[in-house]
Amino acid sequence: MKEYLSWQEKTISDFSPENISALYGDGFVFTRTGKGVLNQTRSVRINLSKFELNSENKRIMRKTEDIKFDTISLPHSDYDWHIHKLGVDFYTKKFGEKTFSANKIKELLTSKESNFNLLLEYKYNNIAVGYCICYQDKNILHYAYPFYDLETEINNLGIGMMTKAIVWAKEKGLEYIYLGSAKDSKALYKFQFEGVEWFDGKTWKQNTDELKNILQR
Description:
Layout: E1 8-11, H1 17-25, E2 28-30, E3 37-40, E4 43-47, H2 55-63, E5 68-73, H3 81-95, H4 102-110, E6 118-124, E7 127-136, E8 140-148, H5 157-171, E9 176-181, E10 196-199, E11 204-205, H6 208-215
Parallel strand pairs: 8-9
Antiparallel strand pairs: 1-3, 2-3, 4-9, 4-10, 5-6, 6-7, 7-8, 10-11
Helix pairs in contact: 2-5, 3-4
C-alpha cells in the first residue's frame, strides 16, 4: 500500500462528538497508529442530506440484496480469529505483505485504546464475507477499514458494502459519512454517490473534474 496521504497530524484528548465532528470537518480522520491520533488528508465524504440512490447505486443494491448487514459495538465482546484472518488475507492480496497485521486488526477491534467503536458485518448465507472497522458518533460515520472475501462468488461485494453503509447512515439520521481519502485515481469509485464532497486542504468541494485533474498530475 502506498504511503497514506497526510498533510498534518494531530493527537487529541477531547473525545467529545462535537470536537471529533469538527476535526473531521477540517479534513482530519482517525488513524490506526495510536489513541487520539488523526491525520488531515484529502478526505472524501457524503453529505447525507443530499444523498439519494441513483440508478447505479440501485443496480449495486440489487446485485448484493442477499448480503445481510449488521452492526457490532467495539470493543468486540465475542471476538473470533476468523475476522483478522479475513482482514489479513484481503490487505495482503490487495496491497502486499505486512500492510495490515493480524495483531493490529485484533487490537482495533478489542482494545479500549482503539479510536474505532463500530464494526460493520456483512453475511451471505449466514457466513461472514466482509467487515468494515468504523468510527461513529451522533453526527458522523467514518467508514475506515473495509475488508472482504476476495474469493467469493458475489459480484460487486466491496462497493455493495459501502453502499449499504451509506444507506444505513442516512437512515440513522447522521449528517455525513466519511469514506477515507482520495490519494490517487483508484479512489474515484467513491464519487459515484449523490452528495459526495472532497477536502482540498482548506474547503470542501463538489467539483470532481477538478479532483481528477489533481489525481492525474
